[in-house]
Write a structure and sequence with these properties.
single chain; 120 residues; alpha+beta; three-stranded antiparallel β-sheet; 2 helices; 38% strand; elongated
Length: 120
């Protein structure tokens, strides 16, 4: 099982829009997935995707002042702007990256050097 952490704390803002200050219009998101499976060092396998999401600020009805914003609120806005299909694609991509770490389909070896042991 993979758990996901959405960090949407870094944002771009319009200094003023429609008489409101610091209106968030672009979110720099970082999604980190952590597996319940542990690597040989005892750490969860993890992977991260990053990107940005533009928000539509043309019809804001319940403006929240910047100093009252929370990560959870901006995550909800970001996921809403993306749509459930894109959110699922991002999380599926992270899960695949983690599965590739757990069970690699490709390894890089150097001729003339010992082959590392396969991790069980």
């Amino acid at each position: 099982m993979v758990t996901y952490d959405w960090n949407c704390k870094t944002v771009d803002c319009y200094p003023e829009q429609n008489s409101e200050a610091d209106v968030v219009y672009n979110v720099h998101w970082i999604v980190t997935g952590a597996s319940d499976q542990l690597d040989p060092q005892g750490n969860p396998y993890s992977a991260t995707n990053i990107g940005t999401q533009v928000l539509d600020t043309s019809g804001i009805t319940n403006f929240i002042p910047f100093d009252q914003l929370t990560n959870d609120e901006v995550v909800a806005w970001t996921k809403g702007a993306m749509g459930s299909e894109q959110v699922a694609e991002i999380e599926a991509s992270i899960e695949k990256q983690i599965q590739d770490l757990i069970t690699p389909t490709s390894v890089t070896l150097v001729i003339g050097e010992p082959v590392p042991p396969v991790e069980e």
